[in-house]
Amino acid sequence: MTAWFKRKEKGIQTSTEEKKDTPKGLWYKSPTGKIVESEDLAKNFYVSPEDDYHVRIGSKEYFEILFDNNKFTELDAKLTSKDPLKFEDTKKYAERLKAAQKKTGLKDAVRTGYGKSLGKDLVVCCMDFKFIGGSMGSVVGEKIARGIDYAIKKKVPFMMISKSGGARMMEAALSLMQLAKTSAKLAQLSEAGLPYISLCTDPTTGGTTASYAMLGDINIAEPGALIGFAGPRIVKDTTGKELPEGFQSSEFLLEHGFLDFISHRKDLKRKINLYIDLIQNNPVRKEA
Amino acid sequence: MEYLDFELPIKELEEQLDKCMIIGEESDVDVTETCKQIEKKLADTRKEIYKNLTAWQRVQLSRHPNRPYTLDYIKAICGDTFLELHGDRNVKDDKAMIGGLGKINDQSFMFIGQQKGYNTKTRQYRNFGMANPEGYRKALRLMKSAEKFQVPVVCFIDTPGAYPGIEAEERGQGEAIARNILEMTRLKVPIIVVIIGEGASGGALGIGVGDKVLMLENTWYSVISPESCSSILWRSWEYKERAAEALKLTATDMKKLKLIDEIVREPAGGAHANREKTFETVKNKIASHFEQLQKLSPKELVNQRMEKYAQMGVFNG
Questions:
Q1: Is A44 in contact with A266 (CB distance < 8 Å)?
Q2: Interface probe, candidates A260, A267, A287, chain B, greatest B C-beta count within 10 A
Q3: What is the CATH number of the domain that holds A196?
Q4: Using CB atoms, which residue from B91, B149, B150 is nearest to A257?
Q5: Could you give the residue ranges of the DSSP H alpha helices within A76-225?
Q6: Structural domains in chain A (count)
Q7: Which of A254, A275, A280 sits opposite B87 (nearest CB)?
Q8: B90 Cβ contact list (under 8 Å, min separation 6)
Q9: A189 → chain B, closest CA residue
């Protein structure tokens, strides 16, 4: 090596302000280590084009995928949680709610959209995992119930996108009873003869699987999602057994008879609408 | 193409015809006349063989390795409108029993049927078309879903029987088939059943109760396979031909006994000799029967179906 290549002064001399940095969120790294530009990821339905990894997304992105031109009306947007039990763990529930709202810009863990998908009306309730782990409390239960009521009133199909760790512990048994409340509403939807599509995404666990996530006229899932009642860690600790490969994955559930099919996110809009047209005996709509 | 033993004269003539055409291409000899003669002989031989098929020969044809299977029919009939649905919501997705929604013209149907494989690997995957209890429960789930949304049901039957396994018994094979039979008698939507291959016993009837039951010309439907019947009653597998005759298992016999409603003609040489034509015929049959059944109210439909099954049986006094 010649001398011109040699560092003259020791250490890094650039001041912090002058340092060049890559802005956050420009790149996405999938679990298999593939790197994707965020823009490309969004264009590809938030699925890594390299390995088909379905990135966890929220209601904003699902509505964008499902509703024509991303046009929809949000229902019951103002519902927020109370703290009826004055619950406190390492943090007060009231404070936790405030922090989650501030961090995510969401009011709670589910949003309801009403709009057109391939030109026909559809009600979609979609959970947001980033809001306290997509946990289901009174607000989630109430918003789903109202979403179903709206579907019945308008006589349109109902779709539920689950992405949840389960019931919200901070609302204890009030949260548990949301399983019964939402299931009762689904029974009414069924009586009304309207189709119910349940989409399970990563993760769909706990109380959600023990209620609306498993009650669809069709239950479908995204590839590779974790779906189960008791989480894998709990099953392993309780039984003391090694879990089989792919345990509680979408593919595992399909094999065991709980899913009608697994859909890649790019096919989601076409496939749910194909199902709706077939089961309602209407002409099959094509994507524009 | 694979040939059955009684089809060998056809195979020979086809080979002669091929040779004749090659000679015509490779030399100056005019073979037009010779080819024509062979073609005529081939057509006559084919007609002769298929006109006088024995019961056993029809059983062989129903199991012909080139014969179209359930998914072949559905995909040909529905094209890209077919949406396969899986699972019994209980234990498993049975690969020997398939189902899903699809369109014939503008009408939706729920299709259900046993599925066989076309090579060693897929035959194992499909368990040779022998469904487990979860297969029958998957079928029932789809039928109930069709009923809920007033979608008519089409069942394609092609099975050597329900799977006789230990787990199948543990999970209630008998109960699963029984439940299906009962629910199918009172399902409030039209059910059209088409036997496209083998119709073996309870395994077939588990998806086989319908308003219209059609049998393709070269299929069989009975309480037991001729081989098993031979083994039980003659205590040897050698009497399968006699058993096939005795069981009266062909479409013609079944129609005479008033146990099925209609025979669907196959192209000369069997369903596999002209698959497209077979698909077209079956599609039109389903569409025209639905056209008639659709005129009945759910109540009339169920009453008529129950009455039809009440009439079955022959006795003195």
A1: yes
A2: A260
A3: 3.90.226.10
A4: B91
A5: 93-104, 138-154, 172-191
A6: 2
A7: A254
A8: A257, B134, B137
A9: B148
| Number of other residues whose CB lies within 10 A of the CB of residue A190 | 14
Q: Do B148 and A190 touch (CB under 8 A)?
A: yes
Cβ contact B88–A193 (<8 Å): no
| Facing A217 at nearest CB: one of B81, B92, B145 | B145
Same structural domain, A66 and A16: no
- Would you call B154 helix, strand, or coil by DSSP? strand
Query: What's the rounded Cα separation, in Å, for the pair A162 and A58?
Result: 10
Interface contact flag, A283 B106, Cβ < 8 Å: yes
Shared domain check, A148 and A64:
yes
Structure tokens at B148: 């809920």
- Model pLDDT for residues A138-177, shown as the tens digit of each residue: 999 999 999 999 999 999 999 999 999 999 999 999 999 9
Beta-carbon contacts of B261 under 8 Å, excluding residues fewer than 6 positions away, are B212, B213, B214, B255
At B43-72, the pLDDT tens digits run: 888 888 888 899 999 999 999 999 999 999
3-class state of residue B153 by DSSP? strand
- Report ipTM for this prediction: 0.89
Domain interval for residue A201: 57-279
Q: How far does B167 lie from chain A, in Å, by closest CA?
A: 15
